[in-house]
């Protein structure tokens, strides 16, 4: 009996003391990505942005986040894909890195994952050049394959600081 | 029981310095900004301070007048008063003593000497 | 920041306040308006600076402050007859003191040439060469002098036994000293034994509770010197008989025996109690108690200082229930409960005087001290931000209500109106937190005027007005430089020399008048002089000569006067020391405009000139013109706008490739297509379908901005775009509009510069946010 209990605990709740990480998983097109929940401030629906003059194409514009002027990055374009066509399901993930707050525009948030760090692997070499700059790790869960986005590198002005 | 010290000085710098020297050593510091304020604060205190430290040159009521007032009040006549001043000349010291000062500390003071002087005059050494 | 650094900061803040008080007082003295209290205040200010400086070992500052203070003390005690030279010396000393403080604050080495010279002058006044010696003594007067007595007595280095005979006078207790405390302190210095000499004690009936009857003989053995012991009695040297004798360890017992010669029974009893640390027969002790509580001292005899306080507490008569016959103790450390609860505050009439109710009445100085709090600026800014949001949301909500079809008269609409009023009031109140009186800037002017007048060889009287006018802290900080330049200009160029003034039938002394006031939501500062006024012919000639205006241009008097703000314009015909280090008025205009302000000059020949500068009350909000460019809404700062116009097709000319010029009253100005420049539009807009906004840049140049339309004017809350993003060429910030959208605020100067540098299309590759 005690053995069974221990085992079931191991399966459902990963070992106490083992490094667990939580991730917010989301979609861009057909691909799945995620970000460390520790860098996520909130998740909100799409709202139209004010274009920023002379900004790189992946910078969607500014939105008003309760009084903060928040720059929004079209993560699809940042990763080298076609720009996101905003729909009702489009979502802005508000992230914080090095004291800078910004939004990541994605196609939709799927769920929140609790993952043992052993499930994380370095990204394979085959990933595209552009995407590799922003993908720190990949993980495989229940047959799903997710790439972990390193938010530190998404905003251009943070690239140097990170 | 920690000793309660009433410090009276019109200079914020000096009040801060006294506070910084005394509080970490376990004293409870109550502050006033001039002689007149000092009398008000003293009268408002629930328990008599163990020692009063006062500056001499202050607006509204100077240190001499403050000491005289305190000594004239039976409730405070036995409260030790240390005069804190840059005046080191005998005349000022003599006037302070005549007014009823218990002792003196010369500015700039160092923390150890300040505390030694307080302990020297306090009824209980804390 | 550690505690010491924080105090250091406080010290310099306080120095600044004291320097102001010193200068204000000396100026009042100069004008013959000073009473004794003013001089006392000046003395106290210098004295306080010296005191604080000593604590931070700022020796140069201490030395100078000491000399200055000594002179002021002479003045205070009326030992000096002040003449004009003397007053000027004190003012110059105040200036030098201020410099020394600044140098100390910034960690620089002060230019001592000036202060040394003054120091000599100051010392000459008091005529004391021994001043220096006295100053040195200050710091060391109470440091115990180390004398190795053990060598004097031929004893071995190490422990020495001292016999201390100590007999307090009545006065010792009157000054709240206590024999017990000395014994306690001595007990911490070595092995101690105490005998009490009660010989002088009268019969109980004859005891005066305020008198001192006991003497003490202490033998103390330890590694210490006679001076250490003397130091314990430092405060009471004059209030007691004190004799300290050193003896070798061997002699200790003999000496002790000698002192104990013929103890009577009471002595033995007391002695026994003290030595044993027992509380046997406390009543006997109490009976002979005078000021020093023997219950307290009993721990001393045990030779363990640590237990002394505790046993003192335990044996406190109040706790042990022993009744006291001596009345002296009651009034001492244990005020009777009835007294403590006495509702009457005090007998002293001065105590019931409300704070500041005396001569300081009406002056917001010390009295206000207790009513202010120091708040971190970040917190205030956060509050201002939040209130800004509240205002925006309130506007949005009202708009939604209207969109939802609510009539203006319904209850909800009325409620919104009240809400709007409240939020506006809240915004004003919050803005007021950041507001400070311009006094802090005005305070520096007297010195400036003195120095400039001296260099320019003019005689000047400064009159200030409206120094309590409040304006945002950030603006105050940036006000100083332009104000300084304008005052320099007024004295150097505006005022005539004393000789010329006499010829013109004016008093020798010129007047510079600086006033501040609020006018329609802005602060207006005027700097006027009663000099010769602007020589318009000369100004016009110079402007033509330098190619600033065309010889054919018809200019009004006003336009000519304001030519002095054009870059490269300078009327200085001879190079004075002031013009040499000064900057042109164009720089003044630039710095005022960067604060969202404007500056103009008016002049009347022979009567004088007047600069008028108007500034926003805050940098947190901005008066803007809301315009549309390429489907986007943009805010143009109102302070930059000269006029708006609808151009005719004939007024616009092509110039080179894409560039266009617009003819505004015979002047061709570059036409800047805002929508195109910001990338909101792919192709140039049609000028005849849009609106041209004529702007004046910080350097005085004008340009024409082409936008699609004007929505209106309003105050907007300024938000940073750099916090979370970065620099955007041509954009100074952003705001949030009533519909909740973000709108960019133009940085007109940078926009125009960008358009010049990059033709009409900026290259995104070079201007990308930072990548």
From TrEMBL, chain A:
The segment(s) forming the CheW-like domain are 20-160
Entries under Pfam families matching the protein: CheW
What's the name of the protein?
Purine-binding chemotaxis protein CheW
Please give the CDD domains that the UniProt record associates with this protein.
CheW
Q: Which GO terms describe its cellular component?
A: cytosol
* Coiled-coil zones: none
What the entry lists under PANTHER family is as follows:
CHEMOTAXIS PROTEIN CHEW, CHEMOTAXIS SENSOR HISTIDINE KINASE-RELATED
Naturally occurring in which organism (per UniProt)? Pararhizobium mangrovi
Give the GO biological process terms.
chemotaxis; signal transduction
TrEMBL record, chain B:
Top-level taxon of the source organism: Bacteria
Q: Which residues form the Response regulatory domain?
A: 4-122
Enumerate the SMART domains for this protein: REC
Query: What Pfam families does this protein's entry cite?
Result: Response_reg
**A biological-process GO annotation:** phosphorelay signal transduction system
The modified positions for 4-aspartylphosphate read 55
Q: Which UniProt keywords apply?
A: Phosphoprotein
Does the record bear rRNA-binding in its keywords? no
Protein name as catalogued: Response regulator
Signal sequence, renumbered to the chain: none
Matching InterPro entries, A to Z? Bact_response_regulator, CheY-like_superfamily, Sig_transdc_resp-reg_receiver
UniProtKB/TrEMBL annotation, chain C:
**Comp. bias intervals (Basic and acidic residues):** 330-347
Task: Tell me if DNA damage is a UniProt keyword of this record.
Answer: no
Report the residue ranges that make up the HPt domain in this protein: 1-104
Q: Which reaction does it catalyse?
A: ATP + protein L-histidine = ADP + protein N-phospho-L-histidine
Point out residues bearing the modification Phosphohistidine: 47
Which GO molecular function entries does the Swiss-Prot or TrEMBL record give?
ATP binding; phosphorelay sensor kinase activity
State its Enzyme Commission number(s).
2.7.13.3
Q: What are the recorded Gene Ontology BP terms? A: chemotaxis
Q: Which UniProt keywords apply?
A: ATP-binding, Chemotaxis, Kinase, Nucleotide-binding, Phosphoprotein, Transferase, Two-component regulatory system
Which principal EC class is assigned to this enzyme? transferase
One Pfam family for this entry, by name? HATPase_c
What is the designated name of this protein?
Answer: Chemotaxis protein CheA
Organism name: Pararhizobium mangrovi
Its lineage opens with: Bacteria, Pseudomonadati, Pseudomonadota, Alphaproteobacteria, Hyphomicrobiales
């Amino acid at each position: 009996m005690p053995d069974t209990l221990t085992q079931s605990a191991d399966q459902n709740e990963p070992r106490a003391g083992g490094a667990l990480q939580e991730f917010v998983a989301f979609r861009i097109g057909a691909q799945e990505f995620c970000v460390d929940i520790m860098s996520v401030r909130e998740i909100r629906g799409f709202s139209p942005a004010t274009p920023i003059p002379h900004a790189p194409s992946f910078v969607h514009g500014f939105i008003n986040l309760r009084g903060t002027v928040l720059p929004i990055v079209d993560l699809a374009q940042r990763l080298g894909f076609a720009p996101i066509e905003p729909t009702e399901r489009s979502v802005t993930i508000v992230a914080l890195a090095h004291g800078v707050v910004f939004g990541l525009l994605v196609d939709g948030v799927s769920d929140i994952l609790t993952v043992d760090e052993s499930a994380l692997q370095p990204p394979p070499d085959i990933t595209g050049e552009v995407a590799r700059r922003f993908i720190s790790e990949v993980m495989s869960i229940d047959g799903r394959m997710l790439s972990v986005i390193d938010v530190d590198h998404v905003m251009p002005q943070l690239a140097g600081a990170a | 029981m920690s000793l309660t010290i009433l410090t009276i000085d019109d200079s914020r710098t000096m009040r801060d310095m006294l506070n910084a020297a005394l509080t970490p050593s376990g004293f409870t510091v109550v502050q006033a900004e001039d002689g007149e304020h000092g009398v008000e604060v003293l009268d408002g205190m629930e328990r008599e301070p163990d020692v009063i430290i006062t500056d001499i040159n202050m607006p509204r009521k100077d240190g001499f007048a403050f000491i005289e007032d305190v000594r004239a009040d039976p409730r405070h006549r036995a409260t030790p008063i240390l005069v804190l001043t840059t005046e080191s000349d005998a005349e000022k010291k003599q006037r302070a003593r005549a007014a009823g000062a218990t002792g003196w500390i010369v500015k700039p003071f160092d923390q150890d000497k300040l505390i030694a002087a307080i302990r020297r005059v306090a009824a209980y050494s804390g | 920041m550690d505690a010491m650094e924080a105090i250091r900061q406080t010290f310099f803040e306080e120095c600044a306040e004291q320097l102001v008080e010193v200068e204000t007082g000396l100026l009042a003295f100069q004008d013959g308006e000073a009473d004794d209290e003013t001089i006392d205040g000046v003395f106290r200010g210098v004295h306080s600076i010296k005191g604080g400086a000593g604590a931070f070992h700022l020796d140069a500052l201490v030395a100078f402050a000491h000399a200055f203070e000594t002179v002021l003390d002479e003045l205070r005690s009326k030992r000096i007859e002040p003449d004009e030279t003397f007053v000027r010396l004190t003012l110059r000393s105040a200036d030098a003191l201020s410099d020394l403080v600044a140098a100390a604050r910034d960690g620089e080495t002060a230019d001592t040439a000036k202060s040394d010279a003054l120091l000599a002058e100051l010392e000459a006044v008091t005529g004391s060469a021994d001043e220096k010696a006295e100053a040195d003594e200050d710091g060391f007067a109470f440091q115990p002098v180390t004398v190795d007595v053990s060598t004097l007595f031929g004893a071995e280095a190490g422990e020495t036994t001292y016999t201390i005979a100590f007999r307090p006078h009545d006065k010792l207790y009157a000054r709240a000293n206590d024999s017990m405390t000395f014994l306690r302190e001595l007990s911490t210095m070595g092995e101690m034994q105490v005998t009490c000499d009660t010989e002088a004690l009268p019969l109980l009936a004859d005891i005066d509770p305020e008198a001192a009857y006991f003497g003490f003989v202490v033998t103390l053995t330890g590694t210490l010197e006679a001076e250490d012991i003397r130091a314990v009695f430092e405060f009471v040297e004059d209030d007691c008989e004190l004799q300290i004798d050193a003896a070798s360890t061997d002699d200790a017992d003999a000496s002790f025996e000698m002192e104990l010669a013929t103890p009577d029974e009471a002595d033995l009893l007391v002695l026994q109690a003290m030595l044993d640390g027992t509380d046997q027969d406390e009543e006997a002790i109490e009976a002979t108690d005078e000021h020093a509580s023997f219950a307290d001292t009993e721990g001393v005899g045990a030779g363990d200082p640590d237990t002394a306080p505790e046993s003192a507490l335990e044996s406190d008569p109040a706790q042990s229930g022993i009744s006291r016959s001596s009345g002296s103790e009651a009034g001492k450390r244990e005020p009777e409960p009835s007294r403590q609860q006495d509702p009457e505050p005090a007998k002293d009439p001065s105590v019931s005087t409300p704070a500041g109710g005396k001569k300081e009445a009406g002056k917001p100085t010390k009295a206000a001290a207790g009513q202010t709090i120091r708040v971190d600026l970040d917190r205030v800014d956060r509050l201002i931000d939040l209130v800004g949001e509240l205002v925006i949301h309130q506007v949005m909500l009202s708009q939604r209500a209207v969109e939802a079809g609510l009539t203006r008269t319904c209850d909800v609409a009325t409620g919104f109106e009240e809400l709007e009023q409240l939020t506006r009031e809240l915004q004003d109140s919050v803005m007021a937190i950041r507001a400070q009186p311009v006094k802090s800037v005005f305070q520096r002017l007297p010195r400036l005027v003195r120095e400039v007048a001296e260099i320019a060889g003019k005689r000047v009287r400064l009159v200030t007005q409206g120094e309590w006018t409040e304006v945002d802290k950030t603006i105050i900080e940036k006000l100083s430089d332009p104000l300084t330049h304008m005052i320099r200009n007024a004295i150097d160029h505006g005022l005539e020399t004393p000789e010329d003034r006499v010829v013109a039938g004016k008093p020798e002394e010129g007047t510079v008048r600086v006033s501040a006031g609020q006018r329609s939501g802005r602060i207006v500062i005027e700097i006027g002089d009663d000099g010769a006024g602007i020589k318009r012919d000369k100004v016009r000639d110079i402007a033509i000569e330098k190619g600033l205006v065309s010889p054919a241009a018809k200019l009004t008097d006003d336009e000519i006067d304001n030519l002095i703000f054009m870059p490269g314009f300078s009327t200085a015909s001879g190079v004075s020391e002031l013009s040499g280090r000064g900057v042109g008025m164009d720089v003044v205009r630039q710095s005022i405009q960067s604060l969202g302000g404007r500056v103009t000059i008016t002049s009347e020949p022979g009567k004088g000139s007047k600069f008028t500068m108007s500034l926003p009350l805050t940098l947190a909000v901005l008066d803007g013109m809301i315009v549309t460019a390429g489907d986007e809404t943009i805010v143009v700062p109102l302070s930059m706008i000269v006029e708006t116009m609808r151009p005719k097709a004939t007024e616009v000319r092509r110039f080179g490739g894409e560039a266009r010029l617009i003819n505004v009253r015979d002047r061709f100005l570059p036409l800047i297509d805002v929508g195109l420049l910001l990338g909101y539009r792919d192709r140039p807009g049609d000028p005849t379908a849009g609106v041209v906004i004529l702007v004046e840049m910080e350097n005085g140049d004008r340009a024409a901005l082409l936008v699609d339309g004007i929505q209106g004017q309003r105050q907007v809350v300024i938000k940073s775009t750099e916090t979370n993003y970065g620099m955007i060429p041509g954009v100074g910030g952003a705001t949030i509009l009533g519909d909740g959208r973000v709108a960019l605020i133009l940085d007109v100067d940078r926009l125009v510069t960008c358009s010049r540098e990059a033709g009409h299309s900026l290259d995104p590759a070079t201007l990308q946010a930072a990548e």
